């Protein structure tokens, strides 16, 4: 796993290769170490690798030694996950563009990473009204008291209020930054940042010492949406970064809630637009909101539940085509990585990938974080 982690980090350093292309590389070659050593012609077979991208890859990867890069990178960035790490947040891993490298600082709670503790994103304008502040505080506190973790972006306004209210209620909060996890932005949130480190977690896809950049903040909104089971937009004008988070939430299949406001209130125009597009209404009765959010199922900890041998023996599998049977025989009763399945079956990576997908659809195999597989 450490070896493969080095290649996720190495690919993340190649300009022009973002999360989408890395996912395609991983699916095409079965792992990123194989992709790293692939020829130019082999890389050209992957969708999205045009001539300019290929030239960048060839030029930039030649002097890099992934294992050495990992060791050096750890010196300035001691804490980070890649998709092959078992602690990588499962909900985020299920999105189309999970960060190849996710840095963190603070107090890790693995129940959040495994999806056992529900997380709710709360976002909104940097210049909220008293109305928006009041409801943000009430809802954040109610969520924290009922076992939810509040996720936001540590910006001024609604973000700050949601973080503070959750912690004041004795709960946890996660801040997703558009800077390195060691950079405090805005600077006025220094005390808030320190409190989050002691009572929650700070995460970012940007390495240490990365300063704020206007392009970073819209991108980080997909991480807020990806970590959360639902996203609440508390107050947002017609052009607001909070609406970007809501759009990502819709794309990821998350529920979106919006706080209604008066039709002539500038800070409420974005929320009213979301409501007209089908967002759920945040009602005055918080018990009803908690009930709706509580209905979102937790993820099963399927990789920790042993299956008794006598139950395994009673399961009658359907007659399978040779390639499917070969993959099932390879997995047997163990949890195997994609690489090992390819190695044990002797099949090419494309065939193994498509076969595993068919077996998942049949309910015979399930995928765990880090491209690991186990029989159901």
Describe the structure.
This protein is of the alpha/beta class. Helix content is 47%, strand content 12%. The protein is built from 19 helices and twelve strands. The protein has helices at residues 2-12, 19-29, 32-36, 40-43, 51-61, 66-76, 90-93, 110-113, 130-145, 158-168, 190-199, 216-227, 241-251, 269-276, 286-294, 309-314, 322-331, 338-345, 349-361, and strands at residues 80-81, 102-106, 119-123, 149-152, 173-176, 200-204, 230-233, 255-258, 280-281, 336-337, 365-368, 372-375. A nine-stranded mixed sheet has the order 1-2-6-5-4-3-7-8-9, with helices on both faces. Helix 9 links the parallel strand 3 (119-123) and strand 4. Helix 9 packs parallel to helix 10.
Could you give the topology of this structure?
Blueprint: H1 2-12, H2 19-29, H3 32-36, H4 40-43, H5 51-61, H6 66-76, E1 80-81, H7 90-93, E2 102-106, H8 110-113, E3 119-123, H9 130-145, E4 149-152, H10 158-168, E5 173-176, H11 190-199, E6 200-204, H12 216-227, E7 230-233, H13 241-251, E8 255-258, H14 269-276, E9 280-281, H15 286-294, H16 309-314, H17 322-331, E10 336-337, H18 338-345, H19 349-361, E11 365-368, E12 372-375
Parallel strand pairs: 3-4, 3-7, 4-5, 5-6, 7-8, 8-9
Antiparallel strand pairs: 1-2, 2-6, 10-12, 11-12
Helix pairs in contact: 1-6, 9-10, 10-11, 12-13
Low-pLDDT parts are: 300-315
Strand percent estimate? 5-15%
Shape: globular
Biggest sheet layout:
9 strands, mixed
Q: Tell me how many strands there are.
A: 12
**Helix content range:** 40-55%
How are the strands of the largest sheet arranged?
Answer: 1-2-6-5-4-3-7-8-9
Distinct helical segment count = 19
